[in-house]
Structure formats: structure tokens, C-alpha cells
Amino acid sequence: MIHLLDAANDTLKKVQNIADKSLDEMQMYLEQCKTDLNSHIDICKQKLDDHTAKCTTDIDEHAIETLESTYEQSSKGISYFVFAVSSLLITPNAYFG
To answer: What is the pTM of this model?
Structure first.
């Protein structure tokens, strides 16, 4: 009976040893996964920052182009208005009968 218990104890020690090794391997794998995930997160953050900077630049450039275009159109409109008003001042009878 004692030999049977000793054999069972030895088997349990072997199983415990295997379980401990498996646990150590799983912890190492988990740490590697965390490292890989953090690296991937850093890469994604950098790509997002780069993309955000590009979009901000594109929006700024578009806003400047729109402002310049609007200014040019306004200038043309004002030029026409000044021409029309000056024409009225020069020949008022031509427009008012």
C-alpha cells in the first residue's frame, strides 16, 4: 500500500512539474502577445497621427484655396459693381429715362 501511495505521489509530482512548465510557457506566450500587441498599437497610433497631419494639411490648403477663390470672385463682383455705378454716375439719363 505504501509503495502504491509513493508511486501515486511520484506521478502527481510529475504531473505538477508538467503543469508548472506548461503554465510558465503560457505566461511567456502571454507576455510575447502583450509585447506584440503594444508594438502594433504604437504602429497604428503613428499611422493615425501621420494620417491626421496629412488631412489637417489638406483641409488647410483647401480652406486657403477656397478663401482665395472667394476673394477673387468678390473682387470681380466689386469691379463690376464699381463699373456699373460709375456708368450710372456718368450717364444717369440713359438709365432713368
So the answer is: 0.52
pLDDT digits 0-9 by tens, 40-87: 999 999 999 999 999 999 998 888 888 777 767 666 666 666 666 565
Q: 66, 74 in Cβ contact below 8 A?
A: no
Q: Write b or e for each residue in 3-15: b if 16 or more Cβ atoms lie within 10 A of its Cβ, otherwise e.
A: eeeeeeeeeeeee
Q: Read off φ and ψ for residue 63, nearest 5 degrees.
A: -65, -40
* Cell output for 64: 486657403
Contact between 41 and 33 under an 8 Å Cβ cutoff? The reply is: no
Number of helices and strands in the chain (H, E): 2, 0
